[in-house]
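INFO  loader      accepted 1 record
INFO  loader      residues=120
INFO  predictor   begin
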Amino acid sequence: MKVQWQVTGLLLVARDVTDFAVIDLRSVKIEFDASKFDERGPPPSDSARVGSAWEYSNKDGTRDLRYRDNREFPLMLYGQFRFRSDTGLNEHFMISNIDACASFSDALLKFEQLLTRRRS
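INFO  predictor   done
INFO  writer      dumping tokens
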């Protein structure tokens, strides 16, 4: 008895338990990049601080001295990835741990490449 395996990659996108879509992962474009985000609340413990930002700033990013109570916020480095498809999928996620986000994105891209190689 010969058994054949076929690698299939599906993405399940759900709004709730009755409204969802199943999308072939090969039709999804996955993008990853880094983003600086001025955190107005307490910063997550797993994110990296890369500077600071002012509530009111000059064009060059320095503190605007016209505002006496001008608050300073930590500038955090986040990872972000997007799922897009021609069928209307457009999901964007920001992850506080940039290393974990990059690893997840790399794993998805490798899986997508595996799917493309197996189907050709």
